[in-house]
Amino acid sequence: IKANELQNGIALVETSRSEKNTEVDKLRISCDSLAVELFEMSEICKDEVEKSANLSHDIEIAQTARDDIQGKLVNEEERAAIMSIELIEAREEVITYAKNLSFIKTELEESRSSHDMLNNDLKLMEEDFQDIDTALQQTIEENEKTLIYEQKKSASLKVELDALKDI
After folding, report:
1. For residue 79, what pLDDT is reported?
2. Which of 1, 29, 61, 112 has the fewest other C-beta atoms within 10 Å?
3. What is the pLDDT of residues 19-57, one digit of tens each?
4. What is the arithmetic mean of pLDDT over 79-91?
């Protein structure tokens, strides 16, 4: 009986061992599958890490470019501010120039008015001069007539004086 029991026990142990070996084989297959999956996953991770490194590099380049653009933007904003100030100053100069032009225009209009008055005065003086010239011309003509008359009279008196001297 004992030998039977022992043989039954051994058969049970062998069955159990066989089942365990089957389970171990399944576990080995499962481990091999997991090892393959782990290798595939490590390759995928390696690719992803490489992509991530490339993206990090691209991000650094983009960050540098963005910093450059921001620097240029700041420079452009400063330049725009300077140009705004210059435009304001130029506008003030234009306003001052316009005021000066307006003042000069007013002076020119006053000068033109004064010039017109002087022209009118000159015309009046020319008319007066012509009147004076005409009067002088008439006076000269009358004086010439008087001179001729006086010369004739003087000549006639000389003739009479000579005749009186002869007597």
Report:
1. 95
2. 1
3. 888 888 898 998 899 999 999 999 999 999 999 999 999
4. 95
Instruction: Classify residue 167 by its DSSP letter.
Output: -
* Spatial distance between the Cα atoms of 42 and 101, rounded to a whole number of angstroms: 84
- Which run of H or E residues covers position 130? helix 2-166
Which letter, b or e, does each residue of 34-73 get, where b requires 16 or more Cβ atoms within 10 Å of its Cβ?
Answer: eeeeeeeeeeeeeeeeeeeeeeeeeeeeeeeeeeeeeeee
Region 144-165 average pLDDT? 90
Question: Residue 135 and residue 92: Cα distance in Å, rounded?
Answer: 62
Torsion angle, alpha carbons of 113, 114, 115, 121, to 10: 110
